[in-house]
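Section handout 9: paired folding examples.
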Amino acid sequence: MKLKIFGLTIALLFTVFSVETQGQTRNPFLSASPEELGFSSERLQRLADMLHSYSEEQKMAGGVALVLRDGYAVFYESFGKLDVESDIDMPKDAMFRIASQTKAIVSVGVMMLQEEGLLLIGDPVGKYLPEFTQTNVAVANDNDGYDVVPANRSITIRDLLMHTSGFSYGYGTAIDEWREAGFLGWYLSDRDEPIRDLVRRIAELPAESHPGDRFVYGYSTDILGALIEVVSGQSLDVFLKDRIFDPLGMTDTHFFVPQNKANRIATVYSATENRGIVRAPEPGAGVGQGHYLMGPRTTFSGGAGLVSTATDYARFMQMMFNGGEFLGQRLLSPTTVELMTVNHLHNIEFRPGVGVGLGFDVVTDLGARGIPGAVGDYGWGGAYHSTYWISPQDGLVVLFFTQLIPATGSDIHGKFRTLLYQSLIE
């Protein structure tokens, strides 16, 4: 795609100048007309109309969508309400609980440590976290129970990155043991216990499968968070701030939200059977609104703990799209980005046409996947129904933030993707 670049180049130079002389701006992404970026304005309006209709029809409260092409913002829309009951419109700088979108950031942190020669992803995890030197696995037996047996090999850091460690979120063969230990589900932000201590206790529980046998979604990235703490000598929150958030200008990304930003946190809603929404419970009644503001501020969950904004997370995504660099700040080499964004799940089942890299899923077969996109697209999502993907082939960085849990029956992701791609005309 060839852009009409004269005006865009002047604007880009002005933006880079302002970033270098005044500090990182809140939104560094230049806007351009959709036609200059290969989109149809008329067709993009269909996408905007659909998003607004979903909030008006109470299929969701609201959200923020941001689409970049080759680093330029082609679509940036807030819609619906930050809080329905208070009738507060959704601002573009709203803060969202991003849950498992935390995993990609922590995975980048691990790869940065590899680039510095402090670890190798082929290393056994027990080299750094001794409690993982020998782990156990729950294996179902013929008596409607299970036996606990030694794992057939050591878990590697790469296993944690690609979710083949065998450690789940507790909902498996040994569910009773995981429940008794207090480890059912991904949510840890209400704990008053450092992640390093939590991970020691997780290591004592029987895993769901032997390392490398299959994809098991669970606490692997939380274990990586503890690994970062041990290898770097910093707490996870400090490491991420010093090494990723500050260099990229991600000033609104936190494990626990500062009090002066409380009015920007989007309220969580839940889908109901009749397709309406209800306000999720307040903190203390399960996940609900969560403890991201008033919690103990002790557990830094590398698997699901961060809160962020659309433009903050887009800075991180654009860094990956750029091969590890953003606005003069290089976090990774292009070869490391390439390694992270190819399929590592050979001979292990995941989803049709989709594999798993190091912190992301990766499209391997467009026809088998069956939805619009391109081979090589990579991304992930979060429990509160946020999603994102990066398309090197199409030059796209796409982010959709909302707060809907559970999102039972919602087709917003499919509609969003379809209406975005129908507006891409070159």
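Moving on to protein 2 of 2.
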Amino acid sequence: MSDAVKAPAHYVAGRSIQPVHAIQDWGLNFCLGNVVKYVARAGRKGDALEDLRKAREYLDFEISSLERG
């Protein structure tokens, strides 16, 4: 049985680590952390295409921020 708050099935089922642990270990900021989160859950919680579009949106936010300097 999974814990819907601490270990949601769409992140942990069949995996050795949760995206949150990778995000923390890698020191990613909010935008890049969300990219990892949405890519990791694509197709595991609802529509894969929607999750990938969300990931792309956060990647675009990060790119825009870096381009602004």
